[in-house]
Amino acid sequence: MNKTAAEARALVAAMLAPLREIAGVEKVLCPPFTAIPAVSAALAGADIGVGAQNMHWEAKGAFTGELAPNMAREFCGYVILGHSERRAYFGETDEQVNRKLRAALQAGLIPIVCVGETLDEYESGRTGEVVARQIKLGFAGVDSASAARAVVAYEPVWAIGTGKASSGENANGVVRQVIRRALSETFNDAFAESVRVLYGGSVTAANAAEFFSQPEIDGALVGGASLKPDEFVAIVKAAVGP
Question: Residues 39-95: pLDDT tens digits?
């Protein structure tokens, strides 16, 4: 919940030129609802996608304050689903994430499906159980052809906004041993290997290369650092590699 439309335009203006110079990296900006049209217009002609931070699963109706899939699709190519803050603060469930995923795919959006464990779950050794459940219930009943368009983001809740990022080795292990295994059990091995998996949780210019160097991590879901033009550009540059 950051940036008015005017502030979002200024943020995009500050990093657009350097971002356009970075080749070989898929870049997506996900502003709050009110700034989506402004950001979409500011990025016209640029090779940078726009995404929504959330959406409802119904096509229309009396759901005050919600964003329908076709409303998001008017300006966006992507949508974040099941972010840990949605789960923690607004009671979003795996079943609701599943309904949103189905609706997003039907609307032609690329869903970024977030999974991750809380500090208590992490410290009690339940990471595998929790993340595997989120994957299996989140993708339940979705056919593999449609699901192949989705992106998964592993964002341990205990690392979001705390400055306590997971180590690259730990995150890589969760992606390999939990996320891809759960995707394999839900679909098949080939599908699990092909899905792009991001890491999210206190990603900064200082630690981005550590995550990007891991064989199972395909990118980053960047939070607070995306509000700082120089920091975000440095993270994107780190994705290119040494």
Answer: 999 999 999 999 999 999 999 999 999 999 999 999 999 999 999 999 989 999 999
What pLDDT does residue 193 have? 97
- Provide CB contacts within 8 A for 38, sequence distance 6+: 5, 6, 8, 9, 31
Q: What share of the chain is helix, strand, coil (3-state, %, to 5)?
A: 50, 10, 40
Nearest to 235 by CA among 46, 28, 2: 28
Q: Which position among 56, 83, 92, 121 bears the catalytic label?
A: 83
Marked catalytic residue, from 92, 117, 121, 155: 155
Q: Tell me the whole-structure pTM to 2 decimals.
A: 0.96
- The answer to whether 83 is a known catalytic residue is yes
Does residue 155 carry a catalytic annotation? yes
Assigned CATH for 89-120+128-240 = 3.20.20.70
* pLDDT tens track for 177-211: 999 999 999 999 999 999 999 999 889 999 999 99
Domain residue extents for the chain: 89-120+128-240
Nearest in space to 225 (alpha carbons), one of 209, 241, 236 = 236
